[in-house]
Amino acid sequence: MLVKQVPVPMTYDHVRTAPKVLLHDHLDGGLRPGTVVELAESRGYRSLPSTDAAELGRWFTSAADSGSLERYLETFAHTVAVMQEREGIVRVAAECAEDLAADGVVYAEVRYAPELHVERGLGLDDVVEAVLEGFALGTARAAEAGHRIRVGSLLTAMRHAARSREIAELAVRYRDDGVVGFDIAGAEAGFPPTRHLDAFEYLRQQNSHFTIHAGEAFGLPSIWEALQWCGADRLGHGVRIVDDLTVDGDGTVTLGRLAAYVRDKRIPLEMCPSSNIQTGAAKSLAEHPVGLLTRLRFRVTVNTDNRLMSGCSLTSELTDLAHTFGYGWADLQWFTVNAMKSAFISFDERLALINDVIKPRYAELIG
C-alpha cells in the first residue's frame, strides 16, 4: 500500500532548514550587536547609543523604522565606524558567513563599499582582501558545524561619491578570488546611475556582472536609467516598477512599456520587503508590491538587505511572505530558483546548486 506524503508544515523552523539563496545583503548592515559593542570598545569608539548588545540591537531596528531612506542610511555610521581595522573586518565577514549558513542560506552575494573602510589607513585592496579572508574563514567554520554555504562579494561604489570607476576596476581585479560583481548604492534622489556611466561601460567591456540600486526611494526614471543607459544585470530593490502597472477595478493588470520590458527580459528584482517598509517604499507587507509582482511572474527574488537594521533573516522574510500571501513550498522554491538563476557565478555552478541542493530538499518539503 502506498502512503501519500504530506507537505511539511510552513513554520519558521522548517523554512530555516530549506536551502535559500540571498542576492542582496549588506555586510555593514548585518553585524551582530554584540560584535558592534566589542569592536567599538576595542578601537575606542564612544558614540554608540548603547553598549548593551540587546538594547543596541533594538535601537538599530527602531532607528531604521523612520519611513525615510536617508534616515535609515544614517544608522550605518556606527557599523562602518567599527569596520576600519583589518581584524574587525575579517571578524564581521566571518560571522556574516556563519550566520547566513546557520539560517539555511546555501549561496549568498554580500555587498559592501570598500571606500567606506579606509579611514584608519587601510587601502581599497586591503579591505577587499580582509573581507575575502573573513568569508573563507566563516565558510570553513560553517562547514565544521554542518552547514554548507558559498559566499561571493559584490563591491559597491557610493553613488554620491566619485570613485565608481576605481571600485569597478577593483571588482574586476579580484573577480577570480571571490568578487562576483559590482553595485552602486546610497541615496537615489539627486544621484542618478548615469553619473557613473564610465564604470558601467568599463564593466561591460570586461564581461563583468553588476547590479544597481534602483527603484527603491526613487521611481521609474531610476529604473529606466539603470537598465537602458547603464545596462544593469539586476535591479537592487526595483520595487517602484509597480508604478508602471495599472490595476483596473476588476483586477485586470496592464503593464506599461518599462514593466513589460523588465518582465519579458526576466530582469531579476532583488526585493527586500522588511527594509522597504522601514524606508517607506511600502506601507505594509500585505500592501508590498512583491505580492502582485509574484502573481504576474516577474523574476522576483527575496532578500534581507540589512539584517541588523531590519531585525530579520532570510528565513523570517520568506516565512512572513508565506503567511501573508498564502505561499506554499513550491512558491518558496520558485523564489529560491529565481535567485540562483540570477546569481553572478557560472551557469554550471548555478545549475549544480539548483539540481543537487535546492530541488531535492524542496521535494522533501513539498511531499
Helix count, DSSP H or I runs of 4 or more residues: 17
| Count of β-strands | 10
- Spatial order of the strands forming the largest sheet: 1-2-3-4
Overall mean pLDDT score? 95
Separation of the first and last Cα atoms: 17 Å
Radius of gyration: 20 Å
Give a description of the structure.
The protein has helices at residues 12-17, 33-43, 53-64, 69-74, 76-81, 86-102, 124-144, 164-173, 197-205, 220-229, 257-264, 273-278, 290-295, 307-310, 314-325, 329-341, 347-366, and strands at 20-26, 105-112, 150-158, 179-185, 211-214, 234-237, 245-247, 253-255, 269-271, 300-302. It has 17 helices and ten strands. Helix 2 (33-43) crosses helix 3, helix 6 packs parallel to helix 7 (124-144) and helix 8 (164-173) runs parallel beside helix 9. It starts with 11 loop residues before the first helix and ends with a helix. It is an alpha/beta fold and 367 residues long. A four-stranded parallel beta sheet has the order 1-2-3-4, sandwiched between helices. Strands 5-6-9-10 form a four-stranded parallel beta sheet. A two-stranded antiparallel ribbon has the order 7-8. The chain is 48% helix and 14% strand.
